[in-house]
Amino acid sequence: MKKTLYLFMLLAACSSAVKAQFCNTQKGTLLYYETRDTEKETVQTDTSCIVDVYKSGDTLIVKQENRGKRAEFGDAAEQITFRCDNDKTTRMTLMSADYLKEMMYRYYLDGYHQANPEETDEEKMKKGFDEFMEQLHCEGEVYIPLKTDAKAGDKLPESKFLYKLKPIKMTASVSNGTVIGFETLTTEAGTFNCLKVSYQAKYKIMFISETTYMTEWYAENVGLVKSEERTKRGKVMATSTLVRIEKPSI
């Protein structure tokens, strides 16, 4: 990326720093997590990268790509979007119909170009995708609102996502969400004042379903600091802890 463009994006992010948001707003920042799987007794390093930061009207939008355990709902949750509309709420979208359609369109174009390298008619390419999309039903959004003025006991709204392409049907949802409160957490990356939330995440494709119980800690201007994945009986299955923040060099 050209230095001038990078500086422009950095200034755009800094201009919104007066608002409190539960995400990192510096494009190119890498967040490193130590992920422990207690069942498999493994430890690995996962990364998240801030891939885009921009304004849409009065809303600051941050796109973060996750690799490894943090992609909780599969490939379609590889990217998380944060929307900061005001100085109190950050809307964290884990999965949405809009993003899935964008992702599928990119995959479609890649495949089309490989099969038809000499084709340049964009309208023709788009028509083929539109015909495919007529067979697809996709709706909803799985999200969590993170609020600076949240209080212990506050309930998080339920949210759902549906994908249907005969004979395949996939659903994802977040339910039974609760704000536990604010808590100071110290990791290798530093000491953070975190908003602690818990919720139930459910993923189902065809006849296979999985339900996990998540507890997560989020810090302002950082994002996720720690997460715990538990069974219904409370057994910890996996944890992810922020161990390093690597900012891009200018």
TrEMBL record:
Residues 150-242 form the DUF3108 domain. Residues 1-20 form the signal peptide. The keyword Secreted does not apply. It comes from the Bacteria. Keywords: Signal. It holds the Pfam family DUF3108_like. This is DUF3108 domain-containing protein.
